[in-house]
Amino acid sequence: MRILLAGGAGAIGRELTPALVAAGHEVWATSRSAAKGSVIAGAGGHPLVMDVYDVASIDAAFEAARPDVLLHELTDLGEYDVAANSRIRIEGTSALLDAAAGHGVERVIAQSISWVVADGDSLAEETEPLRPGIAPGAPELEQAVLAQPHGVVLRYGQFYGPGTWRSSQTPATPEALRLALAPMAEVSSFVHVADAAAATVLALGWPGGVVNVVDDEPAIAAEWMPVLAAALGAPSPEVPASLPHGRPISNALARSRGFAPRFASWREGFVSPDGGVVRSATAL
After folding, report:
1. pTM for this structure?
2. Which domain of life is it from (predicted)?
3. Position 276 in a domain
């Protein structure tokens, strides 16, 4: 397939391009900066500069790629700017989908999140709606993508691994470590970024709808925080006294469709030399 990957230089985009190429697909991957083109080209993709808020720029990307599939992996979380990320989910998604319709692209796969469904103790399946206001723009993104002739929404778990906040490259500054170790709820579900990319490649053949992409072991904060802190060479922080309960997320649907994460649990991924989280002895 010919694939237009919007967000090719981000954490998952860097994993997706080589995975897609290895699966035999042709990939045109976008970034906002020409300077990142070498990263995309080095992974086997065709780099494109695209501004998702510039209609002409988006049309030029579609004209160059002539895609069979649009993969929407755009985020704006570099500075943890919630408003900017909400804008890209709403305005950016709308602009991409308008261009896809105009260029006859019916198959769309987009990034969403799994961890903002209603709190509870039972495993959350894909029928659970996202709670409004917790992740601004995510419900609107899902609704827009699912309205496409063939729209797939991937609700990823919390990322870790190369290029994410939870990686061996996380700066050893108090603020960076705070973000890496901050629990969003008492119960969380994780996924290694390379496993998320592998699921996304599989999703090219999945029917439309929502699919959770998480590992096999939901975790409470008191369990995962010390393990991640040790991997990052940081002191183990205290678990906040008051947290939303959260919800364990089921990956049964993705598993039934062939998803087999290399790191079935964060317990393995955080401490594996191949997980991209453990700092080298020289870095500690």
Report:
1. 0.95
2. Bacteria
3. no
